Amino acid sequence: MANARTATDIRNLSVEEFLQSLDEDTWAEWKRGEVIVLSPASRSHQQMVHFLADLLDEWAQGTGGTVLFAPFPLKLHLPDGDIRVREPDILFVSKQNAAQLQETFAESPIDLVIEVTSEESRARDRSEKFAEYEAAGIGEYWIIDPERQEAEFYQLQPDGRFAPAPPDDKGIYESRQLPGLRLRLHWLWHTSRPRPSEIRSFWD
């Protein structure tokens, strides 16, 4: 996730006012009336986001699912009635959950959220956002850490809690929420990543 800084000129907005105020150039989150403006992402961050978005888009062809990446807010409905608006690096919404997609934002629950984390956002992505995505019923949560070359995968269980879903002994992660999608971890860390056609042949 990109670095965050608290906005000094936008305070005490309702969630509706916040969502209405956003445009294509605004990258921000909302928490209890406070708007948190996010800083631009690094080049390596953007390269990882685009690779993962392309991979998901390749898998989604023909499924009716939708792949989106920041800035595109996700409105999280928490069990206690509280609301958060986060800006995931990538989100995936299946055809079955298409009703959760609005023109300018998505609403939970959806199928998959991915955060590409950094030193600044690492603790937030693994604690605060982890708890929010879990409580809001996100089907899978991936945390990808390019700096440490670490990837964590969590799948929502019937009890409403995230459980770790580690790759197998060959370094392959298989999604449960997106059946048939498999990811080789070494794809993430190589500067020369596979083309969509190579990924498709791996799935076939």
How many β strands by DSSP?
14
Structural class: alpha+beta
Strand content: 25-35%
Report the major sheet: 6 strands, mixed
Helix content: 25-40%
CATH topology: tt1808, chain A
Arrangement of strands in the largest sheet: 1-3-2-6-5-8
End-to-end gap: 32 Å
What's the number of structural domains? 1
What would you call the shape? globular
* CATH architectural type: Alpha-Beta Complex
CATH class descriptor: Alpha Beta
Radius of gyration: 16 Å
Q: Are there runs of 5+ residues with pLDDT below 50, and where?
A: 5-10
* Integer average pLDDT: 87
Walkthrough of the structure:
The protein is of the alpha+beta class. The chain has a single domain (41-203), classed as tt1808, chain A. The chain is built from six helices and 14 strands. The strands form three sheets. The chain has a six-stranded mixed sheet, covered by helices on one side. It has a six-stranded mixed sheet with strand order 4-7-9-10-11-12, sandwiched between helices. Strands 13-14 form a two-stranded antiparallel ribbon. The longest helix has 18 residues, at 43-60. It starts with a strand and ends with a helix.
List the helices and strands and how they pair.
Layout: E1 4-11, H1 15-21, E2 28-31, E3 34-38, H2 43-60, E4 66-69, E5 74-77, E6 83-86, E7 90-93, E8 106-107, E9 112-116, H3 122-126, H4 128-135, E10 140-145, E11 150-156, E12 162-164, E13 172-174, E14 182-184, H5 185-189, H6 196-203
Parallel strand pairs: 5-8, 9-10
Antiparallel strand pairs: 1-3, 2-3, 2-6, 4-7, 5-6, 7-9, 10-11, 11-12, 13-14
